[in-house]
Design goal:
6 helices; single chain; mainly alpha; 150 residues; Four Helix Bundle (Hemerythrin (Met), subunit A)
Length: 150
């Protein structure tokens, strides 16, 4: 997991200055009424960090196999990320993910196969959740910053 935590740290560290170059006006504009703005995408990634933080810690203790599903559109709407300060969202996104990088780095190998069921028919391993988290984060950062930048 050291590679995953390092990749997460590198992605966030590389993305931060590029994200901060985006104006607040650009960050809150929507390509169409049903699409998320950059602020909402970063907000979604903060929500994802929050949900996965719980999963990583609880699954490491093997105390919670079943996790509630995450309803991204509802979370983004309730928190009204488009009204937030862009630089604060970027800072929170970066700091939360640096913390998650540390959590991942410190997980004992023996917990990586612990089951996690996140609204699925069958559970996945904690290792799968961690790897998918990094994939998901990169996917959304590439939406904002462009392919190949992270």
């Amino acid at each position: 997991m050291v590679t995953i935590s390092k990749d997460l740290r590198n992605a966030v560290t590389a993305a931060k200055p590029m994200l901060l170059e985006i104006s607040s006006e650009t960050a809150e504009s929507k390509p169409n009424p049903k699409a998320w703005s950059f602020k909402e995408i970063i907000g979604h990634l903060i929500d994802s960090a929050s949900n996965n933080h719980q999963r990583f810690v609880r699954a490491a203790q093997n105390v919670a196999m079943d996790f509630p599903p995450y309803l991204p559109d509802n979370w983004v709407a309730v928190q009204a990320y488009n009204k937030s300060e862009w630089s604060e969202l970027v800072d929170l996104f970066c700091l939360y993910n640096l913390h998650l990088s540390n959590v991942i780095d410190r997980l004992p190998k023996n917990v990586l196969q612990n089951p996690c069921n996140i609204g699925r028919e069958s559970p996945v391993t904690m290792e799968w959740v961690i790897r998918d988290y990094l994939r998901h984060l990169r996917h959304h950062l590439e939406k904002i910053l462009g392919q190949g930048r992270i």
